[in-house]
Protein 1
Amino acid sequence: MGKHRHTPEDKDLEIIMGNLLRYGVLFSAIIVVAGALIFLKQHGFDQSQYTFFKGEPERLTSYKRIWQTAFQGRGRSVIQLGLLFLIATPIARILFSIVGFVLEKDLLYTIITVAVLMVVLYGFL
Amino acid sequence: MIVLTFTLVLILGAAIAGFIGSLTGLGGGVVLIPLLTLVFKVDIHYAIGTSLISVIATSSGAAAAYVKEGITNIRLGMFLELATTIGAIMGAVLAKHVSTSGIAIVFGIILLISAATSFIHHEAKIDGELPGRLSNWLRLNNEYPTETGMQPYTVKHVTGGFVMMNVAGIVSGLLGIGSGALKVIAMDRIMRIPFKVSTTTSNFMIGVTAAVSAGIYLREGYIDPGLSMPVVLGVLLGAFIGSKILFKAKTRVLKFLFAIIISILAVEMIYNGITHKL
C-alpha cells in the first residue's frame, strides 16, 4: 500500500490541466459576453419568453451554422459559439490527460482515457 | 419582464446557485433547475439545457483551484468517467421519451435522495482497511492533504461504485444536472473515500459527463443563448467565489446546509410535477 502517491509529474500535469481549463472557460466567457452585448443592444427591451419550449432554429443547433452566423455578427449565434467552446473544454481536458498518461508510460490509463474520449465524441458528433 | 431585466436578475440568481454548487461539489444544476422552473417559470426543457452548460462552467472553472490543493484523484476520476459518460448518452436519449412532469418528479426524488444521505451522519473515518484487488490493480489508492499532513486512503467496492456512477451519468443526461450528489454517494458511501476527495473528484468528472449530454442537447435545440448567457456568467461568478472557500469550510456544515436547501426544492418540484404545473 501507499506506493502510488502523487508523483511530482502527476501534480504538475494536474496544475497545467487545471489552468488550461480555466483559460478555456475564460475564453468562452469573453465570447459569451461579446455576444451578450450585441444581443442586448438589439433585443434588450423586448419581452422575454421562455415559458414554452419551441426549440431553437437551425442556426443555433448545427455546429457549422453556429460558426457561420456568429461571424455574421449575430448576437445569439456569437453567444452560442461561446457556449460551444465551453462545452468543448472538458474534451480538451481528456485529450490533455491522454498526453499526460502517454508521457508517464501508463498504458492502462492511456487505454481508459482513450475509451472515455471515444464515448464523449460519440455523444458530441 | 423585458430581456435586460430578466438577464440581470438571472445573473444574480445563477451566481447564488453557482456558489452553493461549488461549495458542495454538486455543480449549479440542483439549485438552478428549480430556480429556473419554479421562480422564473422557464420551460423545463430549456432549464435542463441551460443547466448542463452551467454545470460544465462550474466544473471547468473550479478545476484549477481544486488541483492546486492536491485533493483530486485523477486516476479514480478518469476510470469512473467511463461509467458516467456512457450513462450520460443513455440519459440524454431517455430524456426524449419522458414527459415534463415526469422529469420534474424524477428530479425531486433525486434531490430527496441526496438530502437524505446528507442527514444520515457518519463519522469521518479514514480506515486503513485493506483495499480490494481491483482498486490495487487500477492504482486508485492515494493520499490527500489534511491539517496534520498527508493522509493515505484506500478505495473499496470498485464494481459497486462503477455501477452507481453509471446511474449518476444517466441521471445527469436525463435531468441536466451534474448529479454530483449521486457521484459523491458512490464515492463517499460505497467506495469509502474521504469527503473532500470525493467532492473534488466528483467535480473533475462532472464537466466531462455534462459535456457529453450538452452536445446532444444543443443539437436537439434545448440550449437557448438568451437564457444560457446570464446563467453561465452568473454561475461562473458564484463558483469562483465558492472555490475560494472550499478548503476552509467544515464538512458537516456544508452537508447540512446543502441538505436543507435541496429538501425544500425537492418537495416543490415533486408537488409541481404531480399537479402538472411544470
Note: The two ends of chain A are 42 Å apart (CA to CA).
Protein 2
Amino acid sequence: MRTLCTLIIKNLSRNRVRTTLTALAVIVFTMVYTVVGSTTSLVNRLVSSTSSNTRLVVVNRWITPSELPSRYIDQVTRVRNVQDWTIWHYYFGFLDESKRSDRFGLGIATRIDNLQAMHPGLEELDPASLQAIKHDKIGALVGLHMMDAMKWKVGQRFTLFSATHPGKDLEFHIVGVVPAGKWGSNFFFREDYFQQGTGDDETVNVIWLRVGNEETGRQIAATVEQMFANSREEVKVETEAASAARIAGKTESILAIVNMVVLVLLIDMLVVISNSISISTRERRTEMAVLKVLGFSPNFIIVMVVSEALIVGTLSGGLGAALAFGLSALNEADQLPYTIAFLRMFPVPVSFVPRGMFLGALAAFMGSIIPAWTARGIKVTEVFSDIA
Amino acid sequence: MAANSTLLHLIDVHKHYTRGSETVRVIRGVDFQVSEGEFVGLIGPSGSGKSTLLNLIAGLDRPTKGQLFLDGVDIAKLSEAEVSQWRVHHVGFIFQFYHLIPVLSAYENVELPLLQFGLSARRRRRQVLTALKLVGLNHRLSHRPGQMSGGEQQRVGIARALVTDPSIIVADEPTGDLDGHTSEEILDLLDLLQNRLEKTIILVTHDPRAASRAARLIRLEDGRLVAGDESTIGAAFPGWQGTLT
C-alpha cells in the first residue's frame, strides 16, 4: 500500500508541468461550474419555493412590472371565499449614496397586520420587531443578506434612493431582521408610509389573496378575471404555484442553455484528464510491462492509473470550488478591490466545495478508466520486442 | 558446480505467431533440460528465437504446443493470474536495458517484487539491503536510476532479480548496453550468483565474452536447437580468441 502510494505520488510528480496543467484545467472548469451551477440551483430554488396553491396572485395582464388601480383592491378582496389578502408596492432603489449596482435593493410596502400570514417564510420573524413596525411608521424589516451586505444594525436609519419614484427618497428605521431565505435580500415596510412618502395612492403592484383550497382558488381566479375582462386594466389571476411554473417556464430555456454550457465543461474536463492520462500511460508502457514481469497483477495497473487521476481530479475539483466559494465570500465581505455584482446576486454556497471535489473525482474516474483499461492489457512480450 | 536434479525441462516446445494470413514459426520443437545451479548460455543469430524462448521459460508467453516444466510445474497449463504469481516466486528477470522504475530509488526498485510476499517492512528491508550489498550498491540506496551509471543500474536490476530468492534467473543480453569493462563486472557478478548462491542462470547473449561464462551453451538457429549440449564457445563464435573461464 505504501509503495502503491509512493508510486502514485512519484508518478504525478514525474512530469510536473503536465500534472499542473491538467490540475489547472480542472480547477478552472470546476470554478466555472461552481459559479454557474450555484446560479441555476438558486434560481430553481427560488422559483420552486413559492409553489402554493392556496395563495392567488392578482397582476396586470398586460403590463410588467404589474400595476393595478388601487380601487381594484376593494372589489377583488370582497369576492366570496377570499380568506385574507394583502398588497405589494414595489419600491426599488439604491441603498446608499454610492449608487453602485451592487447596492441596488427592493423594498416591499405591504400590510403589516397580516404580514406573517400572507408571507410564508416569515414564521420565524421576531414578534418584537413586528410590534415595533406597527408603532413606527418609518420602520423597516430588513432581510439578513441585505443587513450583512450593508453592514447595518437594528436601530440604524437608512435612506433608499428611489429608482421607481425619482425624487421620492424615503428614510427608514431598521426595527427588525427578516431571516435568511426567500425574503433575505429584500425589506418590508408599511404601505401607509409608502403612500404618504411617494404620494402614490392610485396604484398597487400586486394583490395577494389567500383561499381555502385549490378548487376555490380556481373559481375565485375565474371570477376576478371576469370582473375586469375587456376593461383598460385587465387582470390575470393565478395560483402562486402556477405563477412559479410560468416563471420557471420562462427561465427554463435560459437554464437549459446554462446547463448545456456546464455539460460541455464537464466533457471538456473529461477529455483533458483522459488525454493527460493516456499520454502518461503511453509513456510508461515499458514500466507497466516491467511491473507485470515483477508479478504485479493487471488490476494493480488499473488501480495505479485510476488513483493518479482521482488524486488530481479530486484535489483540483475541490480547490476550484473552494476558490469560487472564497471569491464569493470575499466579494460579499467587500474584501475584493472590485465588487462582482453577479456573485452578490448569486453567492456560491460552501456546499459546492464537496460537490466540486465529487465532480473532479467523477470526471477523473471516467476520464481515466479507458486509459487504465488499455494499460491493463499491455502485452509484456510485445513491449519488449518493440524495445529490442 | 556439480549439477543436481532437473530444474527446467522443455519437451517439444513450439511457438507460432500469426501475422495476417501468415503463420510465423519462431520456436520449432525445442527439447532440453537445465539442472539446478547450472549456468546455461542461450546463443544464436538475431531472429533465431532466443528471446522468445526466454520469454516462454520465464512465463511471459505461452507455448503454442509442448510442455515446459519448471520446478516440476508445467507452466504452460497455468492461468495468467497463476503464472503471474508463480513468476514472482520462481523467476528473476534481468533486462538488457535494466528497466528500472525511474521515479523510484535503488532501494525502492529492489523492494518492488517483495511487496507481493506479505513480508513485514523489517524483513523486506533486510532482504533488500542484502541484495544491494551483494551487488555492491549498499551505498547508493536513495539514488534514482537517472543518478547512476549503466553498470550501477544493471546491478540494481540484478539485485531486483535475486531479492525474492527465485529458483531461476533469466538474463536477456544483460551486457548488451554496457562497455567492455562494465560488462566484465556484471558477468563477474553473475558468476558470483551461480558459484556462491548456486543460482540457476539462463543467459541470452550475442556476446562471446558473456557466453564464455556459461558452463553450457544452447544454440538456436531458425527456432531449432543446433548442437544442443555439445555446443562450445569455439563453435558458437568461430574465430573468437578469448579464453574460457
Note: Chain A has a mean pLDDT of 85.
Protein 3
Amino acid sequence: MSTPNSNLTPELAEIQVEMEQHALNYGLDFFPTIFELIDAEQLNAIAARGGFPVRYPHWRFGMEYEQLSKSYNYGLSKIYELVINNDPCYAYLMRSNGLVDQKLVMAHVYGHCDFFKNNYWFSKTNRKMMDEMANHGTRIRRHMDEVGVDEVEEFIDACQSLDDLIDIHSPFIKRRADRDPYGFEGGAKEEPEQQERRFPAKGYMDSFINPKRQPNEEPEGEEPAPARRVPEHPEQDVMLFLLEHAPLQKWQADVLAILRDEAYYFAPQGQTKIMNEGWASYWHSTIMTREGLTAGDVVNYCDHHSGTLASSPTRLNPYKVGIELFRDIEDRWNRGAFGKDYDECDDYQTRRKWDKQLGLGREKIFEVRKVHNDLTFIDEFLTLDFVREHKLFQFGYNENTEYYEIESRAFPKVKQQLLNSLTNMGRPRIVVEDGNYRNRGELFLRHHYTGVELDMKYANDTLVNLERLWSRPVHIETVLEDRQAVLSFDGSEHDIDWGDDADEIAELEVPH
Amino acid sequence: MSLKIERDQRRFKQIVRGKVRENLKKYVSHGEMIGRKNKDLVSIPLPQLDVPRFRFGDNGNGGVGQGDGEEGTPVGKGGQQRPGGVGEAGSDPGDGHLMEVDMTLEELADILGDELELPNIEPKGNASITQEKAKYNSIRSTGPESLRHKKRTYLKALKRHISTGSYEPSEPTVTPIRGDQQYRSWNTIDKPEVNAAVIYMMDVSGSMTDEQKQVVRTAAFWIDTWLARQYGGIETRYIIHDAVAKEVDEHTFYHTRESGGTRISSAYKVCAALLENELPPSEWNLYCFQFSDGDNWGEDNERAFGTLKEKILPHVNLYCYGQVESPYGSGEYIGHLQGRFGDKYDTLITAEMEDRDAIYDAIKVFLGTGK
C-alpha cells in the first residue's frame, strides 16, 4: 500500500510507515490513510464540523467550536485525533501531541479505518463524503445568496430538529420501489401510469423532458381511486416523507435532502460507537504493547491509554466496554468457551478453567467486527460473567429525589437497559402514520412507546419545527402518565388531546 | 484546507447576544455550574443553544453505568445534565476523542477573571495585622523522628558511602548512620493577615420568585469564587428581609419566602449592626451585595439612604446593588439610589439583572473596579 502524501514530519512519516506495517501484519484491511498534522485551533474547527473541513455554514458549528476551543484553552479537554470515514481515510493529528501519543493515535486510527471499510453497517455510506460535504456547502451557500441567510438558516434549524427521524435500517432493506426525490410534484396518484413513459432525466431537467401530462391525455374526472393511505405503511423515514409530500419550495427540498443525506451518513457511526472505539482501542493496545513501545514510552503510553478508558458512574465509556468485550470474545473463542456444552455448564471453576485450545479468538473478533452493530454486539456477547466482572449496573430516575439512582445489578436488567438505550440509537421510534389526518391534510405521527415518556418541552418545540415544514397542523400520538395522548400544534397553539374522542383513535389503530 | 469557522462562530455569538434570530434566544442555556459537591469540581458555563428534537424525558428513563455502589446510590441529577447511556454518545458525529480534566474552584476563578477581564483586587489599607506562622522550609541534623526527611537522609548516606568507597554498585545497600539523619525544620515568619467578608442581603418579599433567587444564587456563587480566590478565603454572612430583616444561614437565605412588604432600611440596619459588632471595618475588607426587585415602600427610601450613607458606605470596599427583574416588573429603587448618590461615592455600584444572561455583565460591573 502506498503512503499518500501528507504533511507529516519525516520522523512521524517514518512512524506511520512502521505502524501501517504492523497493522497490515495483523490482518487489518483499510483504505489508504492520509494523516494531516494540524494545530489545535484547526483541529477544533474541524471537529466542530463533525470532522469535515468544509461544510455548509451554520451557527451550530460555531457553537461547537466555541466550546471545543474554550475547553481546550482552559485545559479541560483535548482531542487527540479525528478520523473520517472516507476513501481515502483522512485522519487529523494534533501537532502539539507527544511522539508516543502520535504513535498510539496512528495505531488507533488504523483500527478505525479497518472498521469503516469492513463493518457491514458502513457499507452503504458514501465514501466520497469529503467532497459531498463540500458540495452541500456550496449548494446551501447558493441558496443563501438567493433567498437570504436568515431564511435558509431558519429552515436548516427546523430540519435539524427532525434529522434523527430517519429509518436507520432503510439502506439495507428495500421497503418499496425507489422514487426520484425531486420528482415528487407529480403526486402519488399518477405515478403508476407515468412510470413507463418516463425518459431518464436528471432531477432538474425532469419537468422539461417529461411533461406532467401527456398531450393526448385528457384530464379524467375524479376517478374512484381506492381510498389510499398516505403513507401506505407507517413510514419511519419522516424526513423522506416530508421530502416527498410536504409543500416545499425547490431550495427547501434541496436543504432537506442535504440534511437527510448527512444524517444517513452519520447514522452508522452512532450505531457502532462501542464497537468502533472498542476495535480501535483493541488495536492500539495490541500494536503498541507488542510492537510499538520502547521502554521510554511506557509511562506516557499508560497515561494516555488509561485516560481514554477511564469510566464514570453515569456514562458507560464506549472505549472501555468495547475493548473489554472484544478481549472477552477473543479469550472465550480461544478457549472454546462457547456453545451448548459451555452454556449448560454451571460449575464456576470448570467454566473458568474451560480450555479446548481452539485458538479461534482472533478469527472470531474479525468476524464480529464485520457483521455486528452495537445493538447486536451487546445482545450476542454481553454475558453474566462480564457484567459481574466489570461491575455494570442499571440506573433509573427516581421521581421523589429527582436523581438518577442505581436500581439493579441483576444481569437481565442491565442487559435489557443497555439494549434499550442502543435501540434506534437511543432515540424514540417515531413513524408517520397518516399524511392526510382527518382528511384535512394534517400530519399524524406516532411514537412507539416503550416505557419512557417523551420530553414534553422538546416535543412541543419539535412540533413547531415540523409544522413549519408541513404547513398544516401536526400531531404526535404518545403516552403520558400512562395514558394515551396526542400532542398537536396548529401553527399558533399547542394542544394535548387525552383521547376523548375515542373513535378517531380507534380508527387509526389499523394493524399493519 | 479552507477553514472559515469564524463565520459560524460570529453568527453563533450574534444569536446568543440576541442580535439576530431573536426567537432562538429562548433556547440559550448556560451550562450551569453550581456543582460544588464533588470535591469542588465544577463545570464552566458556556452558552449553548439546543436544537429541539423528540427525545426521552426523565420519567422512566435510565441507563447503564459502571463502578461501585449499592442499589439506591444516586449517580446523577435529573433534569438538564442527563446521564446518558451509551446511546447518548452516538449523537456526536465524527470520531472525536475527548478527555476531561477536573477543575478546582481556584482555576475556575482564574478563568472567570480572564473571561470578564476582572482586575486583581488591592486590599484596602495597609495590612496592619500580622500573624506569626511556622513555615517548614529548612533542614537540621537533629529533630523528632516524625519529621525525618527520608530523601535527604538517603542522599547523605549515599554520598558518605561513595566518598568512603564502601559503595558496591553490584549490591547497592545504603545504610544511614546517626550523622546522616536529616530533619525538617521550621522558621517563623510574619505574615500579613488580610481578612475579607462578604455580606449578602436579599429581599425575600412575595414579589421575588424562585427564578430571581436562582439568579441571585448564581451571582453569589461567582462573587464568592472570585473573592475567595483573591483573598484566599472569605467570611460570608447572609441577611434576608421583607419588612423586617434578620441574619440567617446560607440555606435559609436561599430558601425563605415571605409574603410581606419590602422595607430595605431594615436590612441596612442589620448590616450596620454587623459591621459595628462583628466585622469592624478597620480589620476587614468588606463587601456588601444587595439583591432586590427594587420595589421598596416609598416612605422607607429616605431612612434607607440615611443608614447607607452614615453607617455603611464609608466603611466598605464595595457596596453593590443588583436589581433583578421580577414578573411584576422592576422597581424604582435603583433609580432613586443612583439619583441620590450618583457618582459621589465610588464604593457604590449598581447593576440591573434582567435574567441569567445578565449575571456575567453584572459581575463584571461589580468586581471590575478592582477594590
Note: Strands of chain A lie at 33-38, 81-84, 89-94, 392-398, 403-408, 430-437, 442-447, 474-480, 483-489, 494-497.
